[in-house]
Amino acid sequence: MMVSNLLLVVHLIVALAIIVLVLLQQGKGADMGAAFGGGSSQTLFGARGSANFLTRLTSGLAIVFFLTSLVLAFLFTRHTEDISIVDESTVVQPADSLTDAVPEVEESGSGESDVPAAPE
Which CA distances in Å does 65 have to 11, 51, 68, 117? Predict the structure, then answer.
C-alpha cells in the first residue's frame, strides 16, 4: 500500500510538471517573431537549445507518466475484491411485525373518532 501511495504522488507531480512544461514551450509560429528581433538567440541554451531541452524533458516526463499510469492501474486492480450482491444476505421482516408499528385509533366515548372524516 505504501508503494502505491508513493507512486501516486510521483504520478501527480509528473502530471503537473508536464502541464508547466507544455505551457512554457513556444509554438512553431514564434520563430517568425524571433527573426524580427525577438531576441531568442540570447537565451541560456542558445537559439534552439531551449526548445530541444524542453521538448526532450517533456517527452521523458510523458514516458514516466504513462509508465506510472500502467503500474498504478495494475496495482489498484489487484487490490479489489469481487463482491457479489447475491452473496449478501438481506433481512426480511415478517408481515406480523409491520402491523405492530401501526398505531391504533382510539375512539372517544361519543362514538366519534379523533381523526377527521375525509371530504366526499
Answer: 6, 21, 5, 72
Cell 541554451, residue?
Answer: 45
Mean residue pLDDT of the chain comes to 75
Q: Closest Cα to residue 66, out of 9, 11, 119?
A: 11
**Which residues neighbour 46 within 8 Å (Cβ) at sequence distance 6 or greater?**
none
pLDDT tens for 47-89 read 556 678 888 999 999 999 999 999 999 988 876 566 666 666 6
Which residues touch 63 (CB under 8 Å, ≥6 apart)? none
CB atoms within 10 A of CB 21: 17
For 46, left (φ over 0), alpha (ψ -120 to 50), or beta? left
Half-sphere exposure of 48 (CA within 13 A, CB side): 2
